Amino acid sequence: MYHRITPEPTSVYDRTPRQFRAELRRLAEEDYVPVTTAEYATGRMDVPAGKHPVVLTFDDAAESQFRLNEEGEPAEDTAVAILRDVAASHEDFRPVASFYITNPPFGGEHAERKLRWLHEHGFELGNHTLDHPTLSTVSASEVTHQIAGMRREILDAVPDAEVSTFALPRGVHPDSEQLARSGESRGTRYHHDAVLLVGARPAPSPHAAGFDPLNVPRIRSQGDSGSGAELGSTAWLDKLAAEPSRRYTSDGDPSVVSYPADSSVTPATESEREFNAY
Question: For a tag on the chain, would you pick the N or C end, based on fewer CB atoms within 10 A?
Fold first, then answer.
């Protein structure tokens, strides 16, 4: 889970361009392959055998994540430019990610053009509400207005976008959790294959019995220091590297679901089963 990519971080949610590039390189070198949230949620992950899917999510549609230069290409040191650069030098590392859009998208200027560019280049456009309210503090009608309204704006710009996943503002559900998954407002209906939380552990395999599409956890991108570092990406990547059987490892055939036959690597507890490789 990423927010701003900035040379001057002001919170633990910010990452510098150098930090972001280093983390992507680590993921590539440790055989992770980016997939979108939509691919993850539906289990349709076409990942080479022996490699591990990773979902790169970006909340709030910050301009530091994506803007276009005068040539119509991703501007230097934005998240999209860095991702495409790393992918160009690492075979199988797909330059895809999922962006969770709120208003105004990516600074507002030329917003429709930016959304179209992302969609045309394989990036997922997800919903993050119109105004980023804490959904537990507003009425049911406002919840559906916020979600349906953002869906409408995305589809106005990109009519063939799916908009099938949703990131909860601040990770907080509305009083009725089901409204985060499906609803309707002013003639616009929505239904999400996955609803994303804010933290703070790896998500289970979408094929696992414990997979809950209404509560998909994420890991905040973070180094080995600062508040919450023990739950951040550096700590979790270290843990998964030390216990590789916990990672989802692809068999290379997206039409087949494989799992370890050796009982010595099959978790015996529910908490471990969440992180098993399926």
Answer: C
Q: What is the pLDDT of residue 259?
A: 81
Rg of the chain over Cα atoms, rounded to whole angstroms, equals 18
Give average pLDDT by consecutive 10-residue segment, the chain, 278 residues: 97 97 98 98 96 98 97 97 98 97 95 98 98 98 98 98 98 98 98 95 92 97 92 97 94 88 46 33
In degrees rounded to 5, what are phi and psi of residue 223? -80, -160
147 with 186: CB under 8 angstroms?
Answer: no
Angle between helices 17-29 and 233-242 (to 10 degrees): 10
Three-state SS annotation for the chain: CECCECCCCCCCCCECHHHHHHHHHHHHHCCEEEECHHHHHHCCCCCCCCCEEEECEEECCCCCCCCECCCCCECCCCHHHHHHHHHHCCCCCCCCCEEEECCCHHHCCCHHHHHHHHHHCCCEEEECCCCCCCHHHCCHHHHHHHHHHHHHHHHHHCCCCCCCEEECHHHCCCCCCHHHHEEEECCEEEECCEEECCCCCCCCCCCCCCCCCCCECCCCCCCCCCCCHHHCHHHHHHHHHHCHHHCCCCCCCCCCCCCCCCHHHCCCCHHHHCCCCC
Q: What pTM does this model have? A: 0.92
| CATH number 3.30.70.20 given to 17-273 | no
Question: Which tokens hold the place of 32?
Answer: 């992770």
Instruction: Kindly list the domain boundaries of the chain, sorted by start residue.
Output: 17-273
